[in-house]
Design a protein that fits this description.
By secondary structure, the protein is α/β, with parallel strands linked by helices. It has one domain: Rossmann fold (3-Layer(aba) Sandwich), CATH 3.40.50.1240. It has four helices and eight strands; from the N terminus they run βββαβαβαβαββ. It is globular and about 50 Å long. The model has no long low-confidence stretch (mean pLDDT 93).
Length: 182
């Protein structure tokens, strides 16, 4: 592990079709039940630009040098995290790491801490609180029990302190028309 903790940003994958709604699409525009909606693809592009311009001294969002996305497996076929993360990694010209899946949040956190680099994680929203708790938090009670089901427009920023712990800042993305400002 490095001497200081790296900043970490966690986002949920971009918008998916509503339950019972039409299918999403993949990056080629082909219908798939595991794809993103047009708004989701728009958010993905906006996130790529946002992260490409992040990291200024007064910016609460660090520029990531590592990008992770939830892996798919036999029980979780959704590729939405990777669909969201791929354009960001491409824009930043960094490798996309997608070898950790749901249930391996502790291993992912350990890998990020060992690497010691500013990191973006695009994850499945049902497992984001577990992921955040896998990091050494100053106040684990500050982590919400769940990510809101209807929110695709948040940043969870793990801010390192000098004592080797993180605090959580939840920030609005405010990237697209209709995004909430809180």
């Amino acid at each position: 592990m490095t001497d200081s903790l790296p900043p970490v940003v966690i986002v949920r994958h971009a918008e998916k079709p509503a339950h019972g709604g039409p299918h999403g699409v993949d990056h080629h525009g082909n219908q798939t039940e595991h794809g993103l909606t047009p708004r989701g693809w728009t958010r993905t592009g906006a996130l790529a630009v946002r992260f490409a311009h992040s990291g200024a001294e007064d910016d609460p969002i660090p520029r990531p040098s590592r990008v992770y996305a939830t892996a798919t497996d036999a029980h979780h076929a959704s590729d939405r995290p990777r669909m969201t993360a791929t354009p960001i990694a491409q824009r930043l010209d960094v490798h996309l790491h997608d070898h950790h899946g749901r249930g391996s949040e502790a291993q992912l956190a350990a890998e990020i801490l060992a690497a010691g680099e500013p990191t973006l994680i695009v994850w499945d929203h049902g497992h984001i609180p577990t992921l955040a708790r896998a990091f050494p938090m100053a106040a684990a009670g500050d982590i919400p029990e769940s990510w809101p089901d209807d929110r695709f427009d948040l940043f969870w920023v793990l801010v390192p302190d000098a004592d080797g712990h993180y605090s959580l800042r939840i920030l609005a993305q405010e990237l697209l028309a209709g995004d909430a400002n809180t």
